[in-house]
Amino acid sequence: MANLQTTMPSLKLNDGHSIPMLGFGTGTAWYKRSEGGLDRDLIDAIKTSLKLGYYHQDCAEVYCTEQEVGIAIKESSVPREKLFVTTKVYRELNDIEGSLKASLKKLQLDYVDLYLIHSPFKFKSDEELQQAWATMESLREAGLAKSIGVSNYLPQHLEKLMKTAKVTPACNQIEFHPYLQHGPLLDVHKKLGIATAAYGPLTAVSKARPGPVDDLYAKLAKKYAVTESEIALRWCIDQDVVAITTSGKEQRMSDYMRALAFKLNPAEIKEIKELGEEKHFRGFWKAQFAEDDRS
């Protein structure tokens, strides 16, 4: 197996900052319904991830895991300049500044590297969506967030945002895997210079079996001496899509890092893409995306 990349690659954002291509997520399995009560298992998992080099940590106000991220970072003593911390606002869209300051307090940080509006679905009008983005721009200007972006936005949401935006979103974090490839949306990202980050990149392996990519994943895993999960992560990375994944097991976290040590060839990337288009599967936000389910 070719050892092409053993250090964490990064993607240059449209604002000049860089985002690590592989991130450790604290949503999904770690999600808590309310604040209060520390999850020591999560703190330990984050510390393990940091030890292994997952300096890109992804959290959100609605996950109720920011406190654990903050404690793990402090206990790990990782220099701030090595970290890339993402969080998101969901509940407090009428007070985005207050929400970010509350998040920073829990994270024990002076700023986040990337701050995202978690979804467009709670906005009642185009004006609300646009005003929220203007607030995000002011938070970037104030230095509370190095980069600002969105999550779960579709082309129509980006179009509305860009009508009044002074700053183009640096990133749109979306569910992305072979069964949900967002062709038209990624075209918009490319046109506007917006980076794509993927949550649920392992969906074809973990949630959507059986499916048309199963046999190819197995074949490629054997070829590159990795697991199918690493093939799924590499498929994202090879398309300049940042991959956010998670685990509570050190061995699995370590295995995921092997996705940095090989590269799929263009024919393999294309074959996964074409087989993936034979099936549609959405694992998250199903009700909210009901009207645009093929997007």
| Derived structural class | alpha/beta
- The helicity comes to 25-40%
Distance between the termini: 36 Å
Largest beta-sheet details: 8 strands, parallel, barrel
What fraction of residues sit in β-strands? Answer: 15-25%
CATH architecture: Alpha-Beta Barrel
CATH class: Alpha Beta
Give the helix tally. 11
Shape: globular
Order of helices and strands: EEEHEHEHEHEHEHEHHHEHH
Explain what you see.
- The model is unreliable at 1-5 (pLDDT under 50).
- The strands form 2 sheets. The protein has an 8-stranded parallel barrel with strand order 3-4-5-6-7-8-9-10, surrounded by 4 helices. It has a two-stranded antiparallel sheet with strand order 1-2.
- Helix 4 packs across helix 5.
- The protein has one domain: NADP-dependent oxidoreductase domain (TIM Barrel, Alpha-Beta Barrel), CATH 3.20.20.
- The chain has 11 helices and 10 strands.
- It is an alpha/beta fold and 295 residues long.
